[in-house]
């Protein structure tokens, strides 16, 4: 104990030098702590982003475009092969079309339609303020020219589906009536509350679509205009009433785990070949977290570099102190001090410098961890966003729809990766202290060994 206390007191024999060493070590240890905090915060954020993208794969006919009136189509037979693939736990299939009414313009390019697109006696719940559009010099594109009639009503989307929980990614909730059986062709439908109100529909009401009479089984609420303007029927029903037997316009495959998403996407691409465009969120997510991975690399290398720099500083300081105290070391050994005692004395001195430096470093790290982490993320992600912000729209959305959806998803994830808060937890404090101890051990071990090798006679001669 006396040896340890003597080493601790020796650290302050030269006050100016002691303060300088503590400040330098404090800056080095602060850098180590900040990089350690950044690494943990960014690594946690990467896991959060990757876990939020969902285990889904989107399947659409090759070259599908909302502006195109002629598109390829998938078939239930093709998708049955997808259902049998390893790691695929389910496939939702959709057949999307539009219905015109007496107030709709058939020339308007609203979404995909088949050549036998039908009529309906329903009116769309979505209205357009034509005067407001005119005042703002906006207009709709109508093939062949012309203008919108004052009684214009949007075409109504009709979706045959095997999943009635969502419409275009928006959740819906049945508020009246009951759900439909998506496995049967039974001419039962779900309509939005806005559609029901516009057309005075109730549970059990009927209306026409194509040449068939459909019956309202349930009424749902939805937050988006797209969902409010949509009729849901079972996939077999839509295939039957639209004369598109076995046809599917899109599908969503569900994978058993995120770790299998990439390999399963490739397997689906291989199974469907050139007839389909297969996409998943994993590619976009990987591109989005790319700047975070770069921050991880910076933090890792900086952490290693700062630990090495701290050890070298301690080593050089202690070697210098050993050289200054050669005579003192010689005298100690001459009066019977053991090599182990000499080593412990200098290691204690090194530990004193390092612990004080760790205190200074901790204060700096607590103040600077979050700003430094956010600055690293912002600088790296900004360059990546500028390179990828104007990507080519994905197949299936058309320029306007696909580009908007793609950038909406990109924006939400990008906003998510900037929402990083780096905090110094107790576990990080322990890691920081361990790092400081490692610095002290590595830096003082060689200096202590050098001191222990000095013989009393050599020490006296050098004086």
Describe the structure.
The protein is an alpha+beta fold. The chain has two domains: 2-52 and 289-462, no CATH class; 57-256, no CATH class. 54% of the residues lie in helices and 16% in strands. The chain has helices at residues 2-10, 15-52, 76-83, 130-135, 193-199, 225-228, 235-241, 261-272, 281-288, 290-324, 326-334, 339-388, 398-418, 426-452, 456-462; strands at residues 56-61, 74-75, 88-99, 156-161, 166-167, 170-171, 173-177, 188-192, 206-209, 212-221, 230-234, 247-248, 250-255, 276-280. Strands 1, 3, 4, 7, 8, 9, 10, 11, 13 and 14 form a ten-stranded mixed sheet that branches. The chain has a two-stranded antiparallel ribbon with strand order 2-12. A two-stranded antiparallel ribbon has the order 5-6. The model is unreliable at 66-70, 105-116 and 385-418 (pLDDT under 50).
Which quaternary structure do these chains form? single chain
Mean pLDDT: 75
List the uncertain runs.
66-70, 105-116, 385-418
Total helices: the number is 15
Instruction: Estimate percent helicity.
Output: 40-55%
Q: How many distinct beta strands?
A: 14
Largest sheet, in brief, is: 10 strands, mixed
Distance between the termini: 30 Å
Q: What structural category do the secondary elements indicate?
A: alpha+beta
Radius of gyration computed on alpha carbons: 35 Å
